[in-house]
């Protein structure tokens, strides 16, 4: 699962992508619109600033904006920046590979083989969607009825 920090980062960047080219967006506006605690948002945006994704300006007319065009940022890039990997297990990571503790040899591990496929399919999807892309909203899940 994605951590709360990564989900907040994604929502904040989606907000900034929607405002791209309009100048600095106040932290309070992002926090309120995306339901993100302001203190936590400050930490997240500061981290994204260190990676060159976000720029900021202090002061009365200050705020945050994307330092890169939304068309040049994929969701895969964002998750890799915030999490380090798209893989669900360390032995299936391309860039942060680690052998799993208490496991069989990697060449004999069927779980690893499956997780490599999951990682590749996830990367194909997330690397194909950019912050500039419209994403169709999914319907809400219906609560299971007592009759089912």
Automatic annotation (TrEMBL):
Keyword DNA-binding among record annotations? yes
Q: What keywords appear on the UniProt entry?
A: DNA-binding
The record's listing under Pfam families reads: Rrf2 (PF02082)
The source's domain of life comes to Bacteria
Which InterPro entries does the record cross-reference, listed alphabetically? TR_Rrf2-type_CS (IPR030489), Tscrpt_reg_Rrf2 (IPR000944), WH-like_DNA-bd_sf (IPR036388), WH_DNA-bd_sf (IPR036390)
The name this protein carries in UniProt is: Rrf2 family transcriptional regulator
């Amino acid at each position: 699962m994605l951590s709360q920090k990564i989900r907040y980062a994604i929502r904040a960047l989606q907000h900034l992508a929607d405002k791209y080219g309009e100048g600095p967006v106040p932290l309070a506006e992002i926090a309120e619109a995306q339901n993100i605690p302001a203190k936590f948002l400050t930490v997240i945006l500061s981290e994204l600033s260190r990676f060159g994704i976000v720029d900021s300006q202090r002061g009365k007319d200050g705020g945050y904006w994307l330092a890169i065009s939304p068309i040049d940022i994929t969701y895969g890039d964002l998750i890799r920046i915030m999490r380090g990997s798209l893989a669900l297990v360390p032995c299936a990571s391309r860039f942060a590979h680690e052998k799993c503790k208490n496991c069989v040899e990697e060449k004999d591990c069927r779980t690893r083989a499956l997780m490599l496929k999951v990682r590749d399919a996830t990367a194909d999807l997330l690397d194909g969607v950019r912050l500039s892309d419209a994403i169709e909203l999914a319907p809400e899940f219906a609560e299971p009825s007592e009759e089912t």
